Amino acid sequence: MAELLARAEISPSTITDLLERYLKDNILRPATLRTYRKVIACLIKDCGKGADTLPLGEITFDLLTEWRRMVLERASPATWNNYRTHLRALLNYAILWGWIETNPLIYVKSAPTAQRRKRTVPEKNLRTILALLNDDYGDDGGTDTGSLYPRWFWRIVLRTFYYSGMRLRQLVSLRWRDIDFARNEILLTAEGSKTRREWTIPLSTLLRDDLRLLMNRTMRTSGITAQAALLDRQVFNVTLFYKRYKGAEMTEAHVHGFFRRLSGATGIAISAHRMRHTVATELMRGRNPDVKAVQQLLGHTDIRTTLSYVETDTEQLRHIVGNLTAL
């Protein structure tokens, strides 16, 4: 108790000091750490008047409303709301320890955001892309070294996103031990989960052969003869098949880069997140979708997130309007 009291008495004097205290005391994902640092760097750059930090006493209602104006002039309302969420967490932490008395952000409101339709990839476009990602794998490792190489690998990645609905982080975190071919199941572990929990999803029969092919080529390229030696290895590791991808394992940045090049090559807007939206929208389309099953597949903790993908088509609306009493 004495140690805690002593710690509380040594209050941080600047927003940078508070940030470092918060990051040290809390267990956060690397991506979350980077976001906090980005938000505070932006605040200091916009409002620090050339200084390398900002005293906590200067973070007032007036300063924050001015910062909101500056952010909204160059970025979307969602960006400001994201900045506000992270800064609010820091200031609430300071209140918890008694370093500040009030959080001025509670009076600085979030920005209204438009409720737009989910961005998806039409089926026609998906078929065009899959046709482009034909099998370029040969005994010599393939001769096509273009921007989409190895196409066969990225085709499996794309089909995995479509038939599983998993997030990019989950795909990158997937290990061969997580795939149960006997039970036709895939375990999405807590390490790759946005909500830090794990659950099992079905392994689609339409995806099973793709993953078997990837397993065989992974073993061949790695010189592995027993499947047991494969269990702890990354399922989707493009660095095995194309040495221009640096590192021992595939990263989220590798996947982002591929989708960026794919969009440039086809003129079709596509990303890992857009693929997830596509799956969710497809599953929720039509009459009487199994909302709870879709929620379980996608790992939504709040069913309202799942319901946000419901899109009533024009014919359904026409049917409903047709039930009105004739006047």
TrEMBL record:
The alphabetized UniProt keywords are: DNA integration, DNA recombination, DNA-binding
A molecular-function term among this protein's GO annotations = DNA binding
InterPro entries found in the cross-reference section: CB, DNA_brk_join_enz, Integrase-like_cat_sf, Integrase_catalytic, Integrase_recombinase_N, SAM-like_dom, Tyrosine_recombinase_XerCD
Pfam families in the record: Phage_int_SAM_5, Phage_integrase
Q: Which residues does the UniProt record annotate as the domain Core-binding (CB)?
A: 13-95
CDD domains listed in its UniProt record: DNA_BRE_C (cd00397)
Query: What is the similarity comment for this entry?
Result: Belongs to the 'phage' integrase family.
What is the designated name of this protein? Integrase
- Quick one: a GO biological-process term for this protein? DNA recombination
At the top level of its lineage, which domain of life is listed? Bacteria
Q: Which SUPFAM superfamilies match?
A: DNA breaking-rejoining enzymes
List, for all copies, the residue spans of the domain called Tyr recombinase.
Answer: 116-322
